[in-house]
Amino acid sequence: MTLAPPSSTARARPVRARLPALAAVLCLLASGAARAQPEGDEAYYQRSADCAAAMQIDQFALVARARAGTPGLRPQLVELTKLGFAYVGSAYLRGLRDPRGSDMLKAATAEQKTWPAARHEALVAQCRVEAQKVYRGANSMEQWLIDNKAAKRVDRYLNAPAPAPAASEASR
Prior knowledge:
Layout: H1 8-34, H2 38-67, H3 74-93, H4 100-112, H5 117-137, H6 140-159, H7 167-170
């Protein structure tokens, strides 16, 4: 009895079946390599929180303008949200987790609310350049995840009802 060699489709199926597992292993290896620099992680986490907070402040300002009726802000809002997610995602891949990440973001936001506009604008300009590099350095799967999450977040912001006026404003 002679055995026929396996067909090419028979060989290809097990490889295709293993692709998700292979992708997961590669992601773990990549994130492990990024975590191999612990001395720089703390500074990176802080910079990520500072930049995410600065871009979030601008993001909320754009949402308020869009809800007030200013047309055509969605592309700017998606871009800004995407850049913020790129920074947050890269800090996550380096090992930053909640609740610490959220606490760092809240602290950075609270601090920046006291800043003069020029200081905020300078930080946002720097952070946009840095976040573009982070985004471009992400692989296509990571970029797709960032783009998808950013679009969903913007849709949620723009489709949410505007907050009700405070009781003191309503009585005027």
